């Protein structure tokens, strides 16, 4: 297959844009992250998801969904997902009591039911990675059980949207991909336009954008990062529980042959965490079909 065809197959290659909101606190030491922080981090993401679904369902009727080529059952299921996200918000709010962060304002770049469904696939995948990555900081066993119950529901959403609705991979690996708090925050922040100034700070920072131009599996790809010299650093590709480090040479890296990965720029070739990441996250998702072959259907 020619390289040029891959770019049209790469249905979802999102690059996070750099974004700064006031309520962040750069935590270089993970020991300062407590359960209240993790629950507020989760609540921040749940507000975003809840707002995302409520807004789209408010904008698009059943006819809009069908006229845009989506199945007749899609909108009803999205309503159920919207109700789930709202329930997650309520539960986390109750658990946090007076410590609960408040909803922000958001701007999502979808323009149609199908582009909403494409973005839903990304957000649900990031939601799964967020809970998987944050689990290590939860000390209260009841909170951990609750987080597991939310995580598995988000994973069902992710699989349903990706598979039956978008006709892509319902999963990519035997393991989902945990993401660091700041990596997830960087992805979420591009949709957040403002937050109440009274919100508690989160132990996160937003990284500059990482761009992998026309990325395709097994192909050399141009790498650039906002205000960061990528040359000689490493692109860490997270896929499942594995990380592949590829040195940026002459402005390029060869993208690993994975159907799905998250990429960050790291100063280290053995570690990619909030202390070594200099740009990212870029999301790479390629349509490998049920035979494990890259294809457009
Ligand atoms: C608020 O957070 C602090 C610090 O984590 C904790 O000690 C306190 O119990 C929390 N209050 C509520 C109502 O959950
Ligand atoms: C959805 O509707 C809101 C008003 O309810 C509007 O501000 C927003 O631009 C709409 N978004 C899309 C993608 O149509
Ligand atoms: C990528 O992996 C798929 C499935 O294992 C295989 O069919 C394909 O040939 C591989 N492509 C490259 C460029 O290695
Ligand atoms: C990579 O960058 C080079 C030099 O700027 C450019 O000629 C080439 O078209 C780019 N390749 C892709 C795949 O974007
Ligand atoms: C990793 O980086 C070190 C320098 O920090 C270098 O000596 C080593 O060769 C690198 N290993 C790989 C596999 O790139
Ligand atoms: C998978 O392979 C089988 C057997 O070769 C073929 O009949 C089928 O069409 C393929 N499926 C896709 C989605 O390409």
TrEMBL record:
The keyword Signal applies. InterPro entries: CHRD, Ferritin-like_SF, Rds1. Keywords: Signal. Residues 257-297 form the CHRD domain. Residues 1-18 form the signal peptide. Coiled coil: none annotated. This is Ferritin-like domain-containing protein.
């Amino acid at each position: 297959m020619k390289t040029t065809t891959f770019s049209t197959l790469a249905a979802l290659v999102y690059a996070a844009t750099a974004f700064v909101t006031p309520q962040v606190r750069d935590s270089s030491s993970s020991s300062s992250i407590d359960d209240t922080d993790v629950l507020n981090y989760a609540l921040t993401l749940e507000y975003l998801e809840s707002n995302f679904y409520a807004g789209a369902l408010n904008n698009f009727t059943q006819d809009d969904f069908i006229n845009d080529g989506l199945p007749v059952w899609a909108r009803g299921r999205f309503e159920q997902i919207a109700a789930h996200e709202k329930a997650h918000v309520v539960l986390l709010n109750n658990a946090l009591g007076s410590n609960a962060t408040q909803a922000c304002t958001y701007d999502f770049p979808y323009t149609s039911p199908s582009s909403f469904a494409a973005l839903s696939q990304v957000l649900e995948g990031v939601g799964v990675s967020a809970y998987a990555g944050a689990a290590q900081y939860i000390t209260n066993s009841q909170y951990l059980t609750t987080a597991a119950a939310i995580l598995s529901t988000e994973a069902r959403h992710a699989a349903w949207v990706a598979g039956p609705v978008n006709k892509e991979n319902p999963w990519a690996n035997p393991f989902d991909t945990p993401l660091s708090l700041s990596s997830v925050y960087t992805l979420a922040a591009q949709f957040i336009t403002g937050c109440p100034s009274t919100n508690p700070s989160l132990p996160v920072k937003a990284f500059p954008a990482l761009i992998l131009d026309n990325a395709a599996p097994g192909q050399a790809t141009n790498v650039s990062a906002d205000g960061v010299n990528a040359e000689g650093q490493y692109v860490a590709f997270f896929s499942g529980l594995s990380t592949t480090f590829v040195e940026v040479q002459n402005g390029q890296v060869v993208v690993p042959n994975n159907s799905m990965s998250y990429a960050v720029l790291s100063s280290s070739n053995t570690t990619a965490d909030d202390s070594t990441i200099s740009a990212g996250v870029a999301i790479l998702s390629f349509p490998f079909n049920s035979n494990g072959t890259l294809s457009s259907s």
